[in-house]
Amino acid sequence: MIIAGLDPSLTATGWGVIRAEGSRLSFVAAGTIKPPSALPMPARLAILFRQASEMLAAYMPQTGAMEEVFANQNPQSTLKLGQARGAVLAAMGAANLPCAEYAPRFVKKALVGTGGADKRQVRAMVERLLPGAQIDSYDASDALAVAITHAGLAGQEKRVMHA
């Protein structure tokens, strides 16, 4: 099964694609979508939607997973994160893909063993689980971590939003 993982953000949305065959995982691709901050919000969201859609069309995953929104201290930041997440969810919906959601702490605990793991620890574990993975950012490694978490929970109860 091919799984797309996404770590949405308005400044740098990470994405990662893995293949899961039973308990065996392999790296397919990963990257980061970075809409220019000088663009108006609608244009930035359009870039997120378009590039996420292009990635999904190129790798044709059977399912996807993304991090849930967490509340920041700053309500404006939370709102912007929600808008970026909406653009990526719309791309998943347009591709007719089911999408599971996982809390960031849950993903860290599943991969590293502690929900308080930092980005370096998550990336190190992703590189260990996916030897040869070409990862261009912490955002991409976070997205791969979400995909790995989803693969590990296949067949178990999880929160899934159907397109």
From TrEMBL:
Active-site residues? Answer: D7, E67, D139
Supply the EC number(s): 3.1.21.10
* Family designation: Belongs to the RuvC family.
Q: Which cofactor does it need?
A: Mg(2+)
Species, as recorded: Pacificimonas flava
What keyword terms does UniProt attach to this protein?
Cytoplasm, DNA damage, DNA recombination, DNA repair, DNA-binding, Endonuclease, Hydrolase, Magnesium, Metal-binding, Nuclease
Question: What is an example of a GO molecular function annotated in this UniProt entry?
Answer: magnesium ion binding
Name one cellular component (GO) term: cytoplasm
Q: Name one GO biological process term.
A: DNA recombination
Q: Which reaction does it catalyse?
A: Endonucleolytic cleavage at a junction such as a reciprocal single-stranded crossover between two homologous DNA duplexes (Holliday junction)
Q: What does this protein do?
A: The RuvA-RuvB-RuvC complex processes Holliday junction (HJ) DNA during genetic recombination and DNA repair. Endonuclease that resolves HJ intermediates. Cleaves cruciform DNA by making single-stranded nicks across the HJ at symmetrical positions within the homologous arms, yielding a 5'-phosphate and a 3'-hydroxyl group; requires a central core of homology in the junction. The consensus cleavage sequence is 5'-(A/T)TT(C/G)-3'. Cleavage occurs on the 3'-side of the TT dinucleotide at the point of strand exchange.
How is the subunit organization of this protein annotated in UniProt? Homodimer which binds Holliday junction (HJ) DNA. The HJ becomes 2-fold symmetrical on binding to RuvC with unstacked arms; it has a different conformation from HJ DNA in complex with RuvA. In the full resolvosome a probable DNA-RuvA(4)-RuvB(12)-RuvC(2) complex forms which resolves the HJ.
Q: What is this protein called?
A: Crossover junction endodeoxyribonuclease RuvC
Q: Where does Mg(2+) 2 bind?
A: E67
NCBIfam families noted in UniProt: ruvC
